[in-house]
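User: I'm new to structure prediction. If I give you an amino acid sequence, what do you actually give back? Let's try with this one:
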Amino acid sequence: MELITKIKQAEAEAHQIVEKAKADAVTLADQGRQERRQRQERAELNRRRAIDAAVEKARAEVQGEIKTLKAQAEQQRKQLRDQVQKKVPAAVTKVVEYVRGTPGAKTGGQGPRKG
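Assistant: Good question. You get back a string of structure tokens that encode the predicted 3D arrangement of the chain. For your 115 residues, that looks like this:
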């Protein structure tokens, strides 16, 4: 009788051990899933931060390029304006000479005919 009781008690203990092992396995699996999800969330957050940083860096570089290009364009406009301003008096003189029919004009001194 005592042996049967010990066997039943051992079976009950074995059953409890199996149930505890199942519960522990479920707990470990849940923990594993949570850890994976947390790692994925951290990786996604890091990825977003890296993308945002890259976009901000590119934006800053483009803004710098824009300033440089605007400065170059302004410098070129100024140079062109200066070059044109130097030629204006001579061009005005030629036009006036042509209109007046002054011999210094390249048309051979024959301006527009009057009358």
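You can read the tokens as a compact description of the fold. Here is one thing that stands out. The chain has a mean pLDDT of 90.
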